[in-house]
């Protein structure tokens, strides 16, 4: 009787877990096909591993949670890399948003890293109908502007290489913007990262309306190349700083995608968060409630 | 020995399925919190129940699977109703796409249904930053144009009411478009639905570029109201018909959002699927591979 009991219990318990295991295996397979988010993450990692013949993405799930600690602005075509996560706008062939997480360690400059070794490369995880190519930018008159800045990720060659994926890029006016005012804003962020515990930066494009001669509001922007890559009218950067005393600070900037005179101070581009949220259709750092902030943007 | 064997088998098999059942229950709960799509469905149903004091959405999960049988074009802000499912574009305050499933039964006209009793209503499941309002359309000169057509859902007052949610609406030129050419296309779809087993229709906005005097390509569109609701340059309709012999047919149409002369035949607006996919950034009916189609659009 006792032996019968023990056998039944052993068989019962092991069947119970076998059931769970087989069902999970089966469902994982199914879910990865049903919900693109899951599949895409895997696909990106697999693919990233062979970019430029270098081993790239390691231990991703944990890193994505770190970067996205305060919430995803949206879940449309999300792609993840070591130090940044982005959402790709298939209609405009540029990112919706790119979120970086920087620390004093991550922005350390490794003298062996050479930006000149980097090449812009297509994101083959994006369907060819929606994929921006180097050819689209050629002779367009626009720079291939980084959203996650190359200069923020110079701790290793692999990390800086990742920022050259074209899904992290949008057409930017070169002289007077990408190489000047926007670059100054990137340097300002980097300085913050060196002196604080954590800095989270969300960068992206805006398409802002203008009043026409008819008194109506119009959104107008150029598209370049065979794939009609959209040229944003503006770019935003939202910076959340967690100080060494674990206090939070928020600053938001909006810059027009045009030649900006040298003498305009950075603070003139500050903008309330709500303006950027309304214009982009996104909500940022939703998990950080406003009462956590010591200093909000003016 | 035989009894021991039988007991073990019975215990084993039942534990196996008990394991699956408990694990699924537990995981369902978890997944609904991790994947916004699922949670949103629940929220929408809860909210829909009190719209116009009428009991609306019943047995949803199954109905959503029916409507979306051949795949979701995207997963951005999905909302579901009895006869249609939509994805809302928070930046443009109009749908990305609206997918309807029609049958000979569903398009039957119930004489008790009165469209005049319907009021356009705001979608309170959308954050107020991104929500289109009736005020936005007032005095704009544009109609509140249905994507899922009111006329397709006259089997009951509840069903037709659902099509008046503003997340199913986009600004359309009234006379010469919404009330004419676009309406003719809707009637054509309805006729198809009456004579076939199943009709699936995906409708949505397009923002198509035009060559400027400078030789460059520009996208230009008006935005209306305090919430800057985008006025699309064009609208598309993709129609998949499953005939009574279970054969599949595909037709795609693109119409400019402007006064269209009466004498242009419907077939002049036919467009290859790929053109709509490239312009919208979406892929339609992905689960229906092209070899299934008897007749493709020209």
TrEMBL record, chains A, B:
Transmembrane parts of this sequence: 6-22
One GO BP annotation of this record: apoptotic DNA fragmentation
Cofactors demanded by this protein: Mg(2+)
Domain ENPP1-3/EXOG-like endonuclease/phosphodiesterase: 81-291
Pfam family membership, one: Endonuclease_NS
GO MF annotation, one: nucleic acid binding
PANTHER family found in the cross-reference section: ENDONUCLEASE G, MITOCHONDRIAL, ENDONUCLEASE RELATED
Protein name according to UniProt: Endonuclease
Organismal lineage: Eukaryota, Metazoa, Ecdysozoa, Arthropoda, Hexapoda
């Amino acid at each position: 009787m006792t032996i019968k009991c023990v056998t039944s219990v052993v068989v019962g318990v092991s069947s119970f877990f076998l059931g769970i295991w087989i069902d999970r295996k089966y469902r994982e397979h199914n879910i990865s096909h049903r919900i693109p988010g899951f599949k895409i993450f895997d696909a990106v990692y697999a693919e990233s591993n062979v970019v430029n013949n270098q081993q790239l993405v390691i231990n991703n799930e944990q890193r994505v949670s770190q970067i996205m600690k305060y919430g995803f602005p949206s879940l449309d075509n999300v792609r993840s890399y070591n130090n940044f996560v982005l959402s790709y706008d298939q209609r405009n062939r540029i990112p919706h948003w790119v979120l970086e997480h920087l620390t004093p360690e991550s922005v350390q400059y490794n003298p062996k890293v050479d930006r000149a070794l980097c090449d812009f490369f297509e994101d083959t995880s994006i369907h060819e109908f929606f994929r921006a190519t180097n050819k689209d930018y050629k002779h367009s008159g626009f720079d291939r502007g980084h959203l996650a800045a190359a200069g923020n990720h110079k701790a290793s060659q692999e990390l800086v290489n990742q920022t050259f994926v074209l899904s992290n890029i949008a057409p930017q006016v070169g002289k007077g913007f990408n190489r000047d005012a926007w670059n100054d804003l990137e340097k300002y962020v980097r300085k913050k990262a060196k002196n604080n515990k954590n800095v989270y930066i969300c960068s992206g494009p805006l398409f802002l309306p203008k009043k026409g001669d008819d008194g109506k509001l119009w959104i107008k922007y150029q598209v370049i190349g065979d794939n009609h890559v959209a040229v944003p009218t503006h770019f935003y950067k939202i910076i959340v700083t967690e100080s060494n005393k674990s206090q939070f600070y928020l600053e938001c900037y909006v810059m027009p995608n045009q030649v900006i005179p040298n003498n305009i101070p950075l603070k003139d581009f500050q903008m309330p968060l709500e303006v950027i949220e309304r214009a982009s259709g996104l909500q940022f750092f939703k998990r950080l409630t406003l009462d956590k902030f010591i200093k909000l943007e003016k």
